Amino acid sequence: MSRVTRAFRITGKLIKFLIGVLIFTVIALIIWRVVSSNNPKDMKRLIPNEKLISAYEEKGDDLRIFKQDQRSVTSGTHNYGYFAVTDYAFIPDANQIQLLFRYNNSTITATAEDYGLEETPARSDNIYDVTLLFAIDITPENKDDNLETDEDSVRFVRVHASDCESGEKKLYNFRRFVFDLETAELDLNYLLDEELLIAVYTDVYYIGDLDYEETPYGTLCLYDYLEKNIEIKPKKTLFERFSDEE
Q1: Using CB atoms within 10 A of its CB, is residue 59 exposed (0-12), middle (13-18) or buried (19+)?
Q2: How far is CA 36 from CA 24, 33, 100, 115, 200, in A?
Q3: Nearest-CA neighbor of 90 among 245, 244, 221?
Q4: Under a CB-based contact definition with an 8 Å cutoff, are residues 138 and 157 in contact?
Q5: How many Å apart are CA 130 and CA 124, to the nearest integer?
Q6: Which residues, 6 or more positions from 161, have their beta carbon under 8 angstroms from its beta carbon?
Q7: 88 near 67, Cβ under 8 Å?
Q8: What is residue 90's three-state secondary structure?
Q9: How far apart, in Å, do the first and last CA atoms of the chain sit?
Q10: H-type helices in 72-207, by residue range?
């Protein structure tokens, strides 16, 4: 074997080895990113506040819980990937909605740039205002005007969170919010039974520029009356959480 042939063989093996290392590294990074973005274990379950516990004690396994298959991450040109709702639940019997809100560390940096802040907020700071916006049909006899924003056809009601838990992982920050709808004088069962609920949105505003008359910094749809509801078994979302706290 000539020295030239041997050199080519060694070079070829080295190139294959480097390509293998590169592929392994890329796959490892992807897996790490996926794992790091998963919901924290202690925030996967619903917050069992008094209203939810009362509803569960009354309904047991018949407690109705549902969600829809909606886009979970913001995708606008100005907020692509900034915010996500990684899990949520409509619980009509408790007149409540819970959701798990997520944003990564780069979103905080982007917010500082977007608003020209002198310093980047800390991860522990209260940076974002998260509310629900209900679109309610006030002309149920006419479904053709449901996509309009005219106050004569659609009523909009904003709901603020009544409780919140915080958590974080390496790259991501999480907030689990509880929205008790009676605080906004809404009855979820009634709205659903009477087919008056058109849509529910999660609106996100930067806390330092809070104006509900302006377009949200980010928004995600949780409910659309034209979409199918996905029913969730109570035991998968409630029973284990209650057991953990006993």
Answers
A1: middle
A2: 18, 5, 15, 28, 29
A3: 221
A4: no
A5: 16
A6: 130, 131, 177, 178, 179
A7: yes
A8: strand
A9: 75
A10: 105-114, 188-193
Name, in order, each residue with C-beta under 8 angstroms of 152's C-beta and a sequence gap of 6 or more: 138, 139
Short-list 95, 65, 85, CA closest to 221: 85
Q: Which residues contact 31 (CB under 8 A, 6 or more apart)?
A: none
Beta bridge partners of 139: none
Q: For residue 37, count other CB atoms closer than 10 A to its CB.
A: 15
Do the strands 154-160 and 163-168 form a parallel or antiparallel pair, or are they unpaired? unpaired
pLDDT attached to residue 245: 41
Pick from 194, 204, 192, 219: nearest CA to 70: 219
Sheet holding 96-104, edge to edge: 163-168, 172-180, 96-104, 83-91, 66-67, 230-231
What tokens were used for 105?
A: 């560390």
pTM score over 0.85: no
Could you read off the pLDDT of 114-169 as tens digits, one per residue? 999 999 999 989 999 999 999 999 888 777 666 666 677 899 999 999 999 999 88
147 neighbors 136 (Cβ within 8 angstroms): no
Tell how strand 128-137 and strand 96-104 pair up. Answer: unpaired
Q: In the chain, which residues have pLDDT < 70?
A: 1-42, 144-150, 236-246
User: Which tokens hold the place of 122?
Assistant: 């800390």
Q: How far apart are CA 237 and CA 22, in angstroms?
A: 40
Helix (H) or strand (E) run with residue 6 in it: helix 3-37
For Cα atoms 88, 90, 91, give the angle at the middle one, nearest 5 degrees.
125
